[in-house]
Amino acid sequence: MGLSLWGFAALAAATALVGFSKTAVSGANTVSLAVFAAVLPARASTGVLLPLLIVGDLVAVASYRRHAHWPTLLRLFPAVAAGVVVGTGFLVWAGDAVVPVSIGAILILMACVTMWRRRAAARREGDDQGADREPGTGAGRAKARSYGVLGGFTTMVANAGGPVMSMYLLSAGFDKWRFLGTSAWFFLVVNVSKLPFSAGLGLIDGHSLLLDLSLAAFVFPGAYVGRRCAARLDQRLFERLVIAATLLGGVELLLR
Q1: What's the CA gap between 144 and 127, in Å, rounded?
Q2: Which terminal CB of the chain, N or C, has fewer other CB atoms within 10 Å?
Q3: Where are the bilayer-spanning segments (predicted)?
């Protein structure tokens, strides 16, 4: 793709951050999105990044597969599929300038709603884990559908579904390990399902896959660091880092 040495180095560092985000702080890979979109054209960058995200998903599943909450995953997948279809249509219509602004606004809104909900729950119950029973209720199912559609849309349009789903899992009161295990399986399934859509849109081709091949190895050191960090983070700090990463990613996309 005619990359300079500095451009390739920036992509390599962003790829390592993909590994870190998959095994530690989901949402941190919005920085990776920004770097890829700065070095490559915005639409092309999503096609290059998707296979690297799948490599990170495989590492995360291998690390946290036993902690997944499958009832939540089964509730989310149909809504996510609808969001992916909507996102594919949006990509046909939208230009490079529209995509980051749209996703940035969604991420900031989701982060603000999550913070408001958690504070309201803490005031009502004196315990910010009180939402843990919510996924099985009627309201929880409705929320899963709305977050699922948004997650599918954002992951298809800009590979930015991680922050949206992070906000859902936090609002549902998931602890750190169940959060990581559920999100690992979720994004492995979703990202693999996106491959034919991305290829059909021309976002993935021989050139992009060749670049992916040269970058894939950088996922593993980032994932290793992420696993070490995740083991040392307490629950409250973990949640704050996830929300902060989402907000920063949303602001960056708006200002791009």
Answers
A1: 22
A2: N
A3: 43-64, 76-93, 99-116, 147-171, 209-225
- Residue 160 Cα distances to 51, 84, 107, 166, angstroms: 14, 12, 9, 11
Residue that the structure tokens 């399986």 belong to? 185
For 141-166, the pLDDT digits (tens) are: 777 788 888 888 877 876 777 777 87
pTM: 0.78
Count Cα neighbours of 1 within 13 Å in the Cβ-side half-sphere.
23
The domain locations on the chain are: 5-255
Amino acid found at 168: Y
Vertex 30: Cα angle to 183 and 6 (nearest 5)? 130
What are the phi and psi torsion angles at 69 (to 5°)?
-110, 95
